[in-house]
Design goal:
Layout (H helix, E strand, L loop, with lengths): L2 H22 L4 H26 L2
Helix pairs in contact: 1-2
Organism: Cytobacillus praedii
GO molecular function: protein dimerization activity
Pfam families: SpoOE-like
């Protein structure tokens, strides 16, 4: 997956989380699940970015 694809997924998941949280509340199980999915995407992005920085 390219870096740009990952950024796009992160933005989509962030928007989804905002919509779910506004509708169901920030502590709803759906909001928590979306938050965890966003965390995973952000961690993946961070891992890729760290690798690119450390190789330069």
């Amino acid at each position: 997956m390219s870096k740009q694809d990952l950024i796009t997924l992160i933005e989509q998941k962030r928007q989804e989380l905002i919509q779910v949280a506004m509708k169901n509340g920030f502590t709803s199980s759906l909001a928590i699940r979306n938050s965890q999915e966003l965390d995973k995407l952000l961690n993946e992005y961070n891992d890729i970015f760290k690798k690119q920085v450390s190789t330069h």
